[in-house]
Amino acid sequence: MTSRRPALELSRYGAVRGRAIIVSMDAPFINLPDRLRPFVRGGRITALPAKRAVRLLLLDQVAQAFEPGRRYPESEVNEILKALYDDHAALRRYLIDEDLMSRTPDGTYWRSGGTVPVG
Fold it and tell me: Which of 13, 33, 42, 110 is most enclosed, with most CB atoms within 10 A?
């Protein structure tokens, strides 16, 4: 039996308004490594780390909010990232630049890197 951990409350589809649902996967900031704790408060990123190695650790945690193999419209990616950080556009650019997410010219995104929790 898997335990249900607190997860991000998000509207997964733009057509569903006024009704937030719990994302079925674990929230990206469950079991956060100690090195990342200064950058996250209350389940939200407060600042992006200046050091690339630490920033990559944080971005990997963020990438876990996206299901591998699933395609996302840009509006849904923005909605998920807004729930994690005020500057969602910067966060999206970092995910693309670090090859944790990929996109098509028409704005379809998918997770293309990062760790995948097992178990």
Answer: 110
Helices (H), the chain: 52-63, 74-82, 88-97
Region for 64 from its dihedrals, namely left if φ exceeds 0, alpha if ψ lies in -120 to 50, beta otherwise: alpha
Its pTM stands at 0.76
- Per-residue pLDDT of 21-40, as tens digits, reads 233 334 677 788 899 999 99
Round to whole Å and give the CA distance between 35 and 64: 17
Phi, psi of 82 (to 5 degrees): -60, -30
Segments making up each domain of the chain, as ranges: 28-111
Conformation bin of residue 63: beta by default, left when phi > 0, alpha when psi is -120 to 50: alpha
